[in-house]
């Protein structure tokens, strides 16, 4: 009995020691976890502080605010021009149009992105947006946390006039043209090519539209560089006076969100991305590939990638380097995803035949069947079917990316 008693005493001591050890281990683990969380917080805080210390091109940002119809943040040469009746009228009109668009489209997009889209897309990847025009607006609302966008379209890049040096009449005409150029985005969500060609000639290229969307979306412009891409795919800075004379003219913005302080880089290239256009710009293709795998966004793209003779190269560039593709039916045809096990698709909205503005033969019966088999709601309108609001989008992702419903 004495031996049995000693056994149970020893067992009890071991148990107490074990519990004490477990408590100590748990306490150490908790302490280590708190240290890690604190370290992460400190690193994040330091990063935010560093981002806030990045200097801003104040003069450029002042011009961008003037063009966006937003008041100057301090007294400067543009402050006096805000008393111009045309600027006041322009500001009033833009405030009204922006408020209406924000309430009817952008708020819904923002909520849907948070509740649905962000659960299915790895937004730490870069974004490729071909056939974009200067549409920073919708790219930002769908991919708000993405740190780098690469956009490409035909619309030209030109130097913005110095508003202090041009006449009041020229300023008024500029603002009037800018307002007209935004009418399709406000009402339809996309730019109409024929309208753009006329409007951009009057407002001197895409920069004013970029400024408008950037500033109204809550960013400030830290830096703007004009660039070209060499044959190796590397960017090089050029003077704005030379922008017309290079093969791959581009502009590079560095932006800071005024609320979060986070930095975003936006590239826009004024290039033809047809087969012929990319053939003479191998450096641009290398530049895009170097950013892969990336997410791709396509909307209101005139069904150009349905054309295998003229746009097969850009289509292959998208398919070969994309991790997830969010598009309407104007993008890559459904046959490139149908019965392809490496791609998983999720469908949103209601598929309807292409609008009458485009050639017949673009209706995709198999895509219609895919939507009828199961599609999730799409709470906003974004694309050619703005009049009926029967919009549709598809999210195709490589099979190693989870799609949550």
Q: Note the total helix count.
A: 12
| Morphology | globular
**H/E series, N to C?**
HHHEHEHHHHEEEEHHEHEEHE
Looking across the biggest beta sheet, what order are the strands in? 4-3-5-6-2-1-7-8-10-9
Total beta strand runs:
10
Evaluate the radius of gyration.
27 Å
Structural class comes to alpha/beta
List unreliable stretches of 5+ residues: 1-20, 401-405
Which percent range describes the beta-strand content? Answer: 15-25%
Mean pLDDT, to the nearest integer, reads 86
| Largest β sheet strand count, sense and barrel closure | 10 strands, mixed
Percentage of residues in helical conformation: 40-55%
What gap, in angstroms, lies between the N and C termini? 66 Å
Structure description:
Mean pLDDT is 86; it is low at 1-20 and 401-405. It is globular, with a radius of gyration of 27 Å. The protein has a domain at 59-147 and 166-218 and 288-398. It is of the alpha/beta class and 405 residues long. A ten-stranded mixed beta sheet has the order 4-3-5-6-2-1-7-8-10-9, sandwiched between helices. Helix content is 43%, strand content 16%. A hairpin with a 5-residue loop joins strand 3 (219-229) and strand 4 (235-238).
């Amino acid at each position: 009995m004495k031996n049995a008693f000693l056994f149970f005493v020893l067992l009890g001591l071991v148990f107490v020691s074990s519990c004490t050890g477990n408590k100590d281990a748990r306490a150490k683990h908790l302490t280590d976890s708190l240290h890690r969380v604190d370290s992460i917080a400190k690193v994040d805080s330091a990063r935010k502080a560093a981002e806030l210390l990045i200097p801003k091109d104040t003069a450029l940002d002042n011009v961008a605010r003037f063009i966006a119809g937003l008041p100057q943040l301090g007294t400067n040469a543009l402050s006096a021009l805000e008393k111009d009746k045309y600027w006041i009228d322009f500001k009033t009109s833009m405030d009204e149009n922006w408020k209406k668009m924000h309430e009817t489209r952008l708020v819904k997009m923002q909520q849907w992105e948070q509740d649905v889209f962000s659960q299915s897309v790895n937004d730490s990847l870069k974004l490729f947006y071909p056939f974009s025009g200067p549409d920073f607006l919708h790219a930002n609302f769908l991919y708000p946390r993405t740190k780098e966008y690469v956009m490409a379209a035909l619309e030209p890049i030109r130097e913005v006039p110095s508003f202090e040096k041009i006449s009041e009449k020229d300023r008024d005409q500029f603002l009037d043209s800018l307002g007209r150029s935004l009418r399709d985005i406000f009402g339809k969500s996309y730019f109409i090519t024929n309208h753009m060609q006329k409007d951009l000639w009057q407002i001197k290229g895409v920069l004013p539209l970029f400024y408008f969307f950037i500033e109204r979306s809550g960013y400030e412009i830290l830096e703007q560089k004009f660039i070209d891409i060499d044959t190796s795919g590397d960017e090089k800075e050029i003077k704005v006076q030379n922008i017309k004379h290079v093969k791959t003219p581009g502009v590079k913005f560095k932006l800071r969100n005024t609320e979060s302080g986070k930095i975003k880089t936006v590239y826009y290239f004024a290039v033809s991305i047809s087969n012929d256009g990319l053939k003479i710009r191998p450096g641009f293709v290398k530049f895009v590939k170097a950013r892969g795998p990336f997410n791709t966004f396509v909307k209101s793209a005139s069904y150009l990638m349905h054309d295998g003779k003229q746009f097969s190269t850009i289509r292959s560039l998208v398919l070969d380097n994309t991790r997830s593709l969010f598009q309407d039916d104007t993008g890559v045809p459904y046959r490139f995803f149908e019965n392809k096990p490496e791609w998983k698709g999720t469908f949103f909205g209601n598929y309807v035949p292409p609008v009458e503005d485009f050639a017949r033969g673009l209706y995709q019966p198999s895509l219609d069947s895919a939507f009828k088999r199961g599609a999730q709601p799409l709470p906003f309108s974004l694309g050619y079917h703005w009049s009926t609001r029967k919009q549709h989008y598809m999210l195709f992702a490589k099979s190693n990316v989870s799609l949550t419903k």
